[in-house]
Amino acid sequence: MAKPSLKQILGTLRKQVLVGKSYVNLANGLLQADPVILQTAPTFFGLTMDGSLELAQMTVARLYDKRKGTLTVERMLAQASQNIDSFQRGDQQQVRANIAKAEQVVLGLKPVVDAIRLRRNEWLAHIDPETVANSEALSAKAKLTIPDLERALKETEGILVELSSLYEGTTGDLYFIGGDDYKAALNSIRLAKCAAIEDYEKESGETYTGPRPKDCSRGKFDPL
C-alpha cells in the first residue's frame, strides 16, 4: 500500500478544515439572517442549518479520528517529526518548536474533540440505542456550542497553516472564494418578497399587514 507523503497529508487536512469552516460559516450566516426571509422556505433553511452543523462536527471527527490507519492531525504531526529534514523553511529547531506547539494545541482541544467524537459515535454516524431512549443524556455528556466548533477548526487551521508554511512555503488563511455567496441568494429572496408586497398593495389598495423583510423600502444588499 502506498504511503501518502507529508505534502499530501497536509493538503488533505487543509481541505478538510476549509470545508468544515465553510459549513460553520454558512450555519452562522443563516442563523443571523432575517427570519422573514428564512420563513419563505423554513424546511430548506432549517435542514441546511442543521446539516451544516452536523457536517462540521463530522469534519472535526475525521481530523481527530481514533480509527487505526486514518490520516489525522496527530498522525501528520508524528510524520512531520520523522521528516524534519524535508522542511524547506526554518531550521530544525524552529520546526520542532512548531510541532511541539501544535501538540499542545491538540491537547487543549481534547475536551471539544472528545464531545464531538461522542456525538459522532452515538448519533451522527451511528444510532445508539441509549441515545434514542434518552436523547438529553447525549447533550448533557457531550456539550458543544458553535463557538466550540469554530475554535476547533480555527486552531486546527493554525496548526496546518504554520506547518505548511515551514514545509513548502504555503501561506494564508483557508477560505473559499465566494464562500459567502449565500448572502446574494438571501438578498434575491428579500427583493422578490418586497416586490410581491409592493404589488399586493398597489393592486389591492390595502396595506400589507404581514411580516416584512428588512429594508423593503430600499434596494440595499442587506439580507441579514
Please explain how this structure is put together.
With 224 residues, the chain is mainly α. It has one domain (8-204). It has helices at 6-31, 35-38, 42-63, 73-82, 92-108, 110-124, 129-133, 135-141, 146-168, 182-204. Helix 1 packs antiparallel against helix 3 and helix 4 (73-82) packs antiparallel against helix 5.
Question: What labels would you give this structure?
Answer:
224 residues; disordered C terminus; mainly alpha; elongated; 10 helices; single chain
Averaged pLDDT, please?
91
Cα-atom Rg, whole angstroms? 23 Å
Distance between the termini: 50 Å
The outline comes out as elongated
Number of domains: 1
Largest sheet: none
Q: What's the β-strand tally?
A: 0
Alpha plus pi helix count: 10
**Beta-strand percentage?**
under 5%
What fraction, in percent, of the residue positions are helical?
55-70%
Order of helices and strands: HHHHHHHHHH
Summed up:
By secondary structure, the chain is mainly α. It contains ten helices and no strands.
